[in-house]
Amino acid sequence: MLRYSATKLIMKQITDQPVVSNLGPTSDELWHASKRDRNFYTYGSMGLCSSIALGMAVAIEQKVIALDGDGSTLMNLGALGTVGRIMPSNLIIVVWDNEKWAQTGYQ
Q1: Residue 82 confidence (pLDDT)
Q2: pTM higher than 0.85, yes or no?
């Protein structure tokens, strides 16, 4: 399944929960799948999607969904340690695995 198709399926299940998306294509696809005020597009901040979503999850009681990339997750791997330490029950992190650093030229 393509990431955009999966994003559309995820967004069909979302009501008023905030969704944080990784920069570049992930944010573009989220915008096209579901334009809404509760989406937070992290343009220009590779590696921080999960950290931003964690901060939101700690601050509010609502479920928070992060749509992150594998390269972005690796760029800030320490964030997962913090997520594991805090273990917020209202945080869902989806990591798209395309085995590339797509945003920086598909290395």
Answers
A1: 98
A2: yes
